[in-house]
Amino acid sequence: MARSYGILFAITIFRQDFSFMFLSMVTALLLIKSLHWSAQKRVEYIETTPTVLMLSHWERKVVYTFYLELIRDLLHLSMYQCFFLVIFVNYGVPLHLIRELYETFRNFKLRIVDYIRYRIITSNMNNRFPDATLEELNKLVIVIVIIIIIIIIIIIIIIIIIISCPQRLKGIRQQRLKELVNRG
Fold first, then answer.
1. Interhelix angle for 20-48 vs 5-13, to 10°?
2. How open is the CA angle 24-28-32, to the nearest 5 degrees?
């Protein structure tokens, strides 16, 4: 919502150049911004949806998404710098754009730091985590079989308890009825 006020600031800056061309450019800007917002919401929806079909995923989706976001932030930063320079040369210091320019620079800097961390971590991944040996995999299979047997035993115990509960309740009811009949 806060970003939509940028259009109003742009209109106030260019109020001397108010013409048909200016109105068409503002309309195009609004259209592009609305398409950008809808695309951004769609990406957020896909990222947070737990049940997305396997067809819509590909193997290195996270890496591609990261690179796309890095490129997007670079383009965003360069466009804001160009816009800032145009406004500065023609109209003076645009105070309302300083915050946006700073936020864009900060986001890009954080992406670069994340990229450097990612490269450091993935560069020595094979050295830090060697492949599992056949013996380790066999031990893992034995552990999995033991866990499955324990789960089956627990399920059988739960079923026995569920089946015997109505019989116990029936016996308790009959005993209480006998006690009431003997008292009365």
1. 160
2. 170
- Tell me the one-letter amino acid at 40: Q
pLDDT tens digits for 96-125? 778 888 888 998 899 899 888 888 888 877
Coil/strand/helix, residue 59: coil
> In angstroms, rounded to a whole number, what is the distance separating the alpha carbons of residues 56 and 171?
58
Go through 105-137 and write b for each residue having 16 or more CB atoms within 10 A of its CB, e for each that does not.
Answer: eeebeebeeeeeeeeeeeeeeeeeeeeeeeeee
Cα 116 to Cα 73, 102, 151, distances in angstroms? 16, 21, 44
Q: How far apart are CA 171 and CA 149, in angstroms?
A: 33
- Considering the entire predicted model, what is its pTM? 0.46
Handedness of CA 67, 70, 76, 77 (dihedral sign): negative
SS3 breakdown of the chain: % helix, strand, coil, rounded to 5?
90, 0, 10
Residue boundaries of the structural domains of the chain: 1-50, 59-129, 140-184
Cβ atoms of residues 8 and 33 within 8 Å: no
pLDDT in tens, 56-87: 557 577 778 788 888 888 888 888 888 888 88
